[in-house]
Amino acid sequence: MIAIPLLEKYNGIIKNYQSGDIIFEEGKQPTHYYQIISGEVKMNNYNDEGKEFIQGIFYKNQCFGEPPLFIDQVYPANAVAVTDSELIIITKDKFFELLKNNSDISLAIIKNLSQRLYYKSVMAAEISSQDPEHRVLRLIDYSIEQLNFKKEEAGFLINFTRQQIGDLTGLRVETVIRAIKSLEKKGDLKIINRKVYR
Amino acid sequence: MIAIPLLEKYNGIIKNYQSGDIIFEEGKQPTHYYQIISGEVKMNNYNDEGKEFIQGIFYKNQCFGEPPLFIDQVYPANAVAVTDSELIIITKDKFFELLKNNSDISLAIIKNLSQRLYYKSVMAAEISSQDPEHRVLRLIDYSIEQLNFKKEEAGFLINFTRQQIGDLTGLRVETVIRAIKSLEKKGDLKIINRKVYR
DNA sequence: ACCATTTTATGACTTAAATCATATAAAATA
DNA sequence: TATTTTATATGATTTAAGTCATAAAATGGT
């Protein structure tokens, strides 16, 4: 998103997280802008029974957790490192200063938020009213489009576990496994030693 | 969102829609920026079986449908007038010109998108994993916070039909009616001649 | 190389919400 | 005012996805 040298100019500091580390928590006041240098971060919620819902998974060069910064609200979800990750963060004040002095960044932020809102709109409609197979396939297609999944001879390798697909679509693992099996039978995707290709 | 005189300066034109009129359709290329002068607009999708999902309802002074404009994608949902409505619209080109010449508007757009993303995050987690009563109550509380529902002696009047609550939460009318009844019994809200107060 | 954990997998059973049917009240319209 | 349409309401039934149990393969750490 934002060039690292520019972030460093605004007192950007580098932080390292281990897989599973919590970066920030739901309900807490936002204080920084976060951008991924390397690794993988998910934002999630837990419902009253402890079931996880993954709001999104973020990768290299992506930022996450800005909306509450702009609207003075607490975080609506947690941010957790999925793998060991290196992040660069700057304070809220410095972030606004940076924005003020770099009008092109505003447009980048707008585009990024628009992209995320688009994903949420698509998935909201899916989750609320489509059947499991439809939901899973949509998530897969959207992810191929947006994330950099590798194209192999068998097709795009879907780099999600069944559990992650479940947590992203609001389904249980068993349901995802069954949906994927059924989609394979219909020829909509391939399973080659447990890995999913589309 | 954007002052009407400013929109007029950028060739803004006023359009009138009757209740039920389609403003734009899912899958179509976006061409304009839309802002409500008066009336009420919903964005929605229909699933394969024709069930409606309402992405959001928009009121006076609010804009809608910009994200696809910024990311060069087709509309992810339809926009439909819920009541007779008066809108002001400007072309995509003029909108970008306006943004370029008015840097303060960029921040307003960012805040608006952040607010909508926040709503989507909260509702996504609700819809995917909370029970009907929880979902309905969350929608109601969020709507009180964001929309200008009138405060009366009995509490805030929830200006939604049961069907609209269903379409916003991914539930069926009957389920919403039962959830609301149950929430009333628990004292979480009031029903006074069929109207819901919180 | 071994053990613990995670991931994928499948069958049997349960359950919560959807569906279907029907009714009445309220609002809109002719 | 009468009539159609929309919104709220409730009971009975169905069903799709969740839950539970169990297992085997794959992965990761020591």
UniProtKB/TrEMBL annotation, chains A, B:
<dbReference type="GO" id="GO:0005829">
    <property type="term" value="C:cytosol"/>
</dbReference>
<dbReference type="Pfam" id="PF00027">
    <property type="entry name" value="cNMP_binding"/>
</dbReference>
<keyword id="KW-0804">Transcription</keyword>
<protein>
    <submittedName>
        <fullName>Crp/Fnr family transcriptional regulator</fullName>
    </submittedName>
</protein>
<dbReference type="Pfam" id="PF13545">
    <property type="entry name" value="HTH_Crp_2"/>
</dbReference>
<keyword id="KW-0805">Transcription regulation</keyword>
<feature type="domain" description="HTH crp-type">
    <location>
        <begin position="130"/>
        <end position="198"/>
    </location>
</feature>
<dbReference type="InterPro" id="IPR036390">
    <property type="entry name" value="WH_DNA-bd_sf"/>
</dbReference>
<dbReference type="InterPro" id="IPR018490">
    <property type="entry name" value="cNMP-bd_dom_sf"/>
</dbReference>
<dbReference type="InterPro" id="IPR000595">
    <property type="entry name" value="cNMP-bd_dom"/>
</dbReference>
<keyword id="KW-0238">DNA-binding</keyword>
<dbReference type="InterPro" id="IPR050397">
    <property type="entry name" value="Env_Response_Regulators"/>
</dbReference>
<dbReference type="GO" id="GO:0003700">
    <property type="term" value="F:DNA-binding transcription factor activity"/>
</dbReference>
<feature type="domain" description="Cyclic nucleotide-binding">
    <location>
        <begin position="15"/>
        <end position="116"/>
    </location>
</feature>
<dbReference type="GO" id="GO:0003677">
    <property type="term" value="F:DNA binding"/>
</dbReference>
<dbReference type="InterPro" id="IPR012318">
    <property type="entry name" value="HTH_CRP"/>
</dbReference>
<dbReference type="InterPro" id="IPR014710">
    <property type="entry name" value="RmlC-like_jellyroll"/>
</dbReference>
